[in-house]
Design goal:
Largest sheet of chain A: 6 strands, parallel
Oligomer: homodimer
Largest interface: A-B, 55 and 55 residues
Radius of gyration of chain A: 26 Å
Mean pLDDT of chain A: 93
Number of strands of chain A: 12
Number of domains of chain A: 3
Low-confidence stretches of chain A: none
CATH class of the largest domain in chain A: Alpha Beta
CATH architecture of the largest domain in chain A: 3-Layer(aba) Sandwich
Number of helices of chain A: 13
Chain lengths: ~350, ~350
DNA sequence: TTGTAGGCGTTATCAA
DNA sequence: TTGATAACGCCTACAA
């Protein structure tokens, strides 16, 4: 029997004042109403004594605001989104908002349902790393402030905060040629709706500007077959000056695991690098050189952007200049594998 | 300007029926009210057309249920809680509930505030891995169904689902003596309120039953000083047949990193093991032998237990037999470091 | 300095 | 087979 929380009415009854008085005192809204210090003290005391806690449901119904922000990411177990959420949460909490975290598992239908549910529960804004192009349409239609992170929603004038993936690829490519690698294989996860992957590839190609450099791209499914793994190993051992680049933390992890299980020596037999950093990359031996994202900055920018939109929609000034497209610079972390 | 969703009233207006009719049709609550197929179809069509979405706030105010479940963990970035949440979420979603995820950062005050906030927003139940002994008191007082996971709330008759930590320690200890190790150091994080750590130690001691076996325990703060790290290295190199056991994934990671940076060879110079598994443990070379938890099962049991309590409190049958204490068995994963 | 009344969206109870 | 009404807890324009 969930003990029903005391309402504003009960506090008022016990303090011998009208509920509205309680509301104003507890919310410190004294613009047009000033109360005697005695009353204020009494009301606060009673509220404390009764353990009064405002009902968000009531408040939301009245004000239309939930003070909740939705976050939809494709995968909550990846280090990147993990950290992102952690930073976002810290920032968000400080402003009184709370996070409603959702995980689409890279599944378009699940994403749709999740968003629909969020809209139903009520959110004041949404931060999304979309795994589907269309799922956010309903959020836009509902007029809820929206920011995409990591993966942009191409052609949808939604503000975006993410990595400069071209630059990330270039950085890696340039380092590769500096180290004398010529044959490079980029390994990508099978995510046709993730526009960051072709961009990273494109950057990689742009960075690999030297006589006879070759870039090959291959997709590695989540449950890779021996055939697919062999393809990578064959590439790695076929020629000298060969390097493999994982385009995401997951692919980097799995490729590294594969190369090692085949007894290949890194970086002697083959070079190895990755885009996105993760703890294991520095623990393994040889440690893996990676391109890291400024995750905290990403989270901060995304929330600042969202907050601005929320405040604007409140003022109904609707200066929908929502063409913010923020690209942050990556950082190369040199370790031992390249 | 967040477009206000159509309400049940607007659907009713357009479909020429009373709001309550809409409500019952959309909720399929036809026990005492049967409507003509024509009306039903029309209402559903209009709802669809208008893009009607029920307002959780209104519903909550009326029913007292939020269909939200709080999850409070000390650290969202640890692999263990990560996976736990992932599994929990999948299970919870299927029953119509949603997760409100909170991260206390091992901070008692933050935990208090979080819980207070959750109570204010309204949750139908709470799954908590407490980092403080008292913070859950307010949840109990509020009469909200509660289950602790991982870390039990000692002496508080709150249902618990967690690992059999004694058994986990024993398993590790037994393997240690089988492999001929005699001098063992257990490395723990500085978490005085985590009762699983002493239990893991206790089990370890119980497992180390052999002539001349020695168990030493040391705490490793989050930002370890050189002195603390040297202490570990000195222990590792002082005598033969020495092994180090990380009591959590974090300590295991850091100790391994430290041993390696000091050029120690594992397992030749020193053995290394850990309680709790994590991806990096199998990627490093030598791979780390660990005790793994049945995380998915943990999440399932915890939710089943919570759901039962929620349904019971609803029926107000209040058979508060809440003395469930569920301990799951660990699994030893032999790799190369021991 | 305090009170009053209305309504946010929903559903349960009662009536027709 | 359908409708009317009240109430959940809160906030706020308006009145005293």
């Amino acid at each position: 029997m969930a003990i029903s929380n005391p309402s504003i009415a009960e506090v008022g009854r016990k303090a011998k004042v009208h509920p509205s008085t309680v509301s104003r005192i507890l919310n410190k809204s004294f613009e047009s109403h000033r109360y005697s210090a005695k009353t204020v003290a009494r009301v606060i005391a009673v509220a404390q004594e009764l353990g009064y806690r405002p009902s968000q449901a009531g408040r939301t119904l009245r004000t239309g605001k939930t003070m909740q922000i939705g976050v939809l990411v494709p995968d909550i177990t990846s280090v990147f989104f993990n950290q992102f959420i952690k930073h976002l949460e810290k920032k968000v909490w400080a402003t009184g908002y709370r996070l409603l975290i959702c995980c689409s598992n890279e599944n378009a239908q699940q994403e749709q349902e999740y968003l629909s549910d969020l809209l139903s529960r009520g959110i004041d804004g949404l931060v999304v790393a979309p795994s589907d192009t269309q799922s956010c349409q309903q959020v836009i239609t509902a007029g809820i402030p929206l920011v995409s992170v990591d993966r942009p929603l191409l052609g949808m004038t939604v503000p975006h905060v993410g990595l400069d993936n071209i630059e990330a690829g270039q950085m890696m490519g340039q380092h590769l040629i500096e180290m004398g690698y010529k044959h490079v294989m980029a390994v990508a996860p099978c995510l046709p709706n993730d526009p960051t992957l072709p961009q990273r590839c494109k950057g990689l190609a742009q960075g690999l500007v030297t006589e006879g450099a070759v870039l090959k791209t291959v997709e590695l499914p989540s449950e890779a077959t021996d055939e697919q793994l062999n393809k990578i190993v064959n590439f790695a051992t076929a020629k000298p000056h060969t390097a493999i680049v994982g385009l995401t933390e997951d692919t980097t992890f799995r490729v590294y695991e594969c190369l090692r299980s085949h007894g290949l020596s890194i970086p002697d037999d083959v070079g190895m690098g990755g885009i996105d950093d993760f703890p294991a990359a520095r623990l393994v031996c040889p440690a893996i050189s990676v391109i890291a994202q400024p995750i905290e900055q990403l989270a901060h920018k995304a929330f600042e952007c969202l907050l601005e939109m929320i405040n604007e929609t409140e003022k109904a000034s609707s200066t929908i200049e929502s063409s913010i497209y923020c690209q942050l610079s990556p950082e190369f972390i040199r370790r031992e594998s390249l």
